[in-house]
Structure of histidine kinase:
Amino acid sequence: MTASAVFLFGRRARRRWVHLILGGALAMPYVLVGSVILGPVIGSDDVFSSLPLQLGSFAIGLPIAAVTALFAPTRPLVSGAVRALSGTDGDALAHGPARTRGERARTAAWFTLHLGLGGIVSGMSLAVPPFAAVLIALPLFAGLRGTRLGLPAALGEGWAVALTPVAGLAMLLALAACAAGCGALLARWAPALLGPTARDRLAAAEARAADLAVRNRLARELHDSVGHALSAVTLQASAARRLLDTDPEFVREALAAIEDTTRRTVGELDTVLGLLRDGDAPGTAPAPTLAADLDGLLRRTRAAGQRVTATVGTDPAALPPLVSREAYRIVQEGLTNALKHAGEPVTVRIAAADGRLEITVENPLGTAPAPRRPGGGHGLSGIADRVRLLGGSAQAGAAGGLWRLRVHLPLRTT
């Protein structure tokens, strides 16, 4: 099928034709109102007996349609029809009701254009096909010739009869071209008249940015809490299995640590999932902080057989809650990396100086690198995100046979 045929008779063209027919149907009540107004003015009881009077009623009805389209709910209704039938990109159209005067005026302009073009195409769709069918059949049926059907007498004579099928087909093509052209015009003007304003686009961008920020924060929380728990539980279970027969006391401690780790992680997971469920109340498990759980974090890590030395040069309870929470996650991720890469002993240093909280996590480089997941992990990038949101700095890398994570967080978060 050629491009011209697709434009005239393709699926999109047919849907736009239906859209125009719906516009013509919507125009009929306004035409009836126009006829009620026009009839008494010209002193006629039968406005529809004359084509000029019908067109006059149509012309009176369109301004009335424009006035009714000024109501705010009109825009989402007509935008839905445009998305479904005109082939216009849905993102190019506004979703909410028209609020400002300019938005209402543009909606009214599009609605009037739709009803005007729809009324014209609907009238042509009713009148042209029967007349074209008569012209096509005229050479085959002599009874159709003459003036009984309102046809010119010349159509029943000579070469005119042979040319009437061509004229009938041309009329059908002209109708299809008119419908396709009007549908394309409506589709072209829809984004300009029904599309979101600059304020709408800004609000949508802000909403997407806020949603992305929430999703990233929840992803970091899941990665840090669940990732650390799985790494710790795996090593704790492995150590307990190796020492099951030789050190029952260590096995009991490891099992207790596994129970504590999983219980806490389930609580944190419930909190995050509660935030993801629309309408659900979030879980009640508090976000872990240095003041609340640093000792427990170190104890659970040591229960996995990891030697950890911690030096805390500041009172965790005196830290701002946001800094304490993010610092906890950073220390947790540093310990998780040490668990994964089997480098020990691990040294953790936390100190406050010059208005900053300094966190350092060091461990020797492992002799055998841990297997990497496809695409790598997200721990260090999560730390970088946390630090950047607080306006701090972070460095991580190998130096002198050690893997060192060093973070500076400002203590003033406002």
In short: Confidence is low (pLDDT under 50) at residues 279-285, 367-376. The longest helix spans residues 198-242. The chain has two domains: 3-196, 204-410.
